[in-house]
Amino acid sequence: MRTHDTTPYLIAPLHLAGPDETVKVLSDRWQAPSYGDTNVYVHRSAGQLVEALHTPRWAQSACEEHGRTTGGEPERGWEFTARNAPGTTRIWRAVFAPSTPPELPAALAHAVVRLPAMLGPLIHAEPTAPLAAAGWICDRGTRENTGFSPDGQAIVITPPHRHNSLNTALDGSKGNTTQPEAKTPCGRDAGGEACTERWLFAAQHACKQALLWFALADASAPNALLRALCKEITREEPVPRNEIPGPETGPVLVHRLR
Question: Which of 19, 59, 68, 86 has a CA positioned 20 to 30 A from the CA of residue 74?
Answer without folding.
Answer: 86
